[in-house]
Amino acid sequence: MREGWPGAAFVLFLFFVWELSARWVASPNFPGAFTVLSTLATAAPTLLTEMGITLWRAGAGLLLALVVMLPLGIFIGRVRAVGDFVEPLFDMLRPLPPLAIVPVAMLFAGVGSGAKVLVIFYSVSFPIVLSTIDAVRSAHPMLTSVARSLRLSRRQIMLQIDMPAALPQVIVGIRIAVALSILISISAEMLLSTDGIGNVIMRSQEQFRVAMGMAALLVIAATALIINGLVRWIERRALAWHYARQVALSGR
User: Fold this and answer.
1) Closest by alpha carbon to 185, among 105, 121, 129?
2) 91, 105, 180, 183: which could form a disulfide with 115 (CB 3.0–4.6 Å)?
């Protein structure tokens, strides 16, 4: 709890400066912190519902990427010949902005949630698959030697050796993908949607409802903070063995 006090105090200070600045400017285009918080309290049910829609799309795209790209990354990392063919394709597609494929997604998935999920899947796939490939290839060769001495099959090596060994680095890619999935979900809704928190921001901008748009931004920030804390909690639980091993090695 004590570790969070400096950050909380700084946020309160920013709100204080925000309110004073808004009162000094006295413009309807620059609502104060209390005005935005009042709007947030009034529109909370609507904003939370729309944020839930956004999170559903982000979660669907992220889950699909994990199911597809995690095994694919392990396979490519283990089988070098496959990587020689596939990695140039990744290098070609990775620089493309995710929102640039929205028209292509619309052709295959229409204009509904399927198109947004497809765009999110595309954007978060690269951090997951590339971190997995690098993690598998950087694993200690002794692990493979031990697995072969135990006469494990290639499939068993991937599941029982590569997956646990790659997990610490893969988690880093997943953390990046989680943040990216929310970002792309909101951005896609701003371009192509009739619901979701991104659509709320666009409608607020079009109707000059600045306080409503800023209230939506506060909801996004609070949601991102909660999700980041949840991901860190899962990471600590999933990698408890890894951190214990690092402590043991550093103690030597």
Assistant:
1) 121
2) 105
CA angle 214, 185, 210 (to 5 degrees): 15
> How would DSSP label each residue in 145-169?
HHHHHTT--HHHHIIIIIHHHHHHH
Q: Which helix (H) or strand (E) holds 195?
A: none
Phi-psi region of 97 (alpha: psi -120 to 50; beta: other; left: phi over 0): beta
Using CA of residue 69, residue 230, residue 48, residue 176, what is the dihedral sign?
negative
| Spatial separation of the C-alpha atoms in residues 58 and 62, rounded to whole Å | 6
Domains observed in the chain = 53-251 (1.10.3720.10)
Task: Report which of 37, 8, 33 is spatially closest to residue 22, judged by C-alpha positions.
Answer: 33
Over pLDDT 70: what percentage of the chain? 88
Query: Contact, 167 vs 98, CB < 8 A?
Result: no
Query: Taking the model in full, what pTM does it have?
Result: 0.82
